[in-house]
């Protein structure tokens, strides 16, 4: 009676029926996104005067920031919409009106910061990573100086 079960177990293992060693984790093979374009693992791009290399972390594809770089080699639309499906974690973009928020009745302008795509339980979001002075705008690209919104749109911390 034991022999048929042993043979069945051996056959299942031999064919991968139990899944041992047959599952690949595609998170670690996926390309990184930058402005909706896929870039292969190990590739490097330049944006805002910084170099970024496509790699992986525990959450999947991630842009790792390196040293300085020359002119941008990728489009930089700014942090003007939800980064999910457009950027991978670690990507940075200059802020836009999309990133405006309120503290009490005071408007905090998004154009004053650089934002980094960070993973959350529901995807990605832009999080302030520092002053926009960290970003080198390419020749011919005009940096927005102020938000098109006004403080009058803030009420008790809510942007109306």
Automatic annotation (TrEMBL):
Signal sequence residues: 1-19
Region named Disordered: 67-89
Assigned keywords, A-Z: Signal
Taxonomic superkingdom: Bacteria
Keyword Signal found: yes
Chain intervals with Polar residues compositional bias: 73-85
Protein name as it appears in the record: Link domain-containing protein
Record organism: Nocardia terrae
Lineage: Bacteria, Bacillati, Actinomycetota, Actinomycetes, Mycobacteriales
């Amino acid at each position: 009676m034991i022999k048929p079960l042993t043979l069945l177990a051996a056959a299942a293992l031999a064919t991968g029926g139990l899944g041992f060693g047959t599952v690949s984790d595609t998170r670690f093979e996926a390309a990184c996104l930058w402005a909706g374009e896929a870039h292969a693992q190990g590739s490097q791009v330049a944006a805002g005067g910084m170099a970024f290399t496509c790699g992986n972390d525990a959450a999947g594809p991630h842009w790792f920031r390196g040293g300085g770089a020359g002119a941008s080699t990728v489009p930089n639309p700014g942090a003007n919409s939800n980064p999910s499906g457009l950027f991978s974690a670690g990507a940075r973009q200059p802020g836009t009106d999309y990133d405006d928020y309120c503290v009490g009745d005071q408007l905090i302008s998004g154009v004053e910061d650089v934002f980094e795509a960070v993973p959350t339980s529901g995807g990605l979001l832009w999080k302030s990573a520092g002053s926009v002075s960290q970003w080198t705008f390419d020749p011919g690209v005009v940096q927005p100086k102020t938000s098109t919104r006004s403080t009058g749109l803030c009420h008790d911390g809510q942007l109306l």
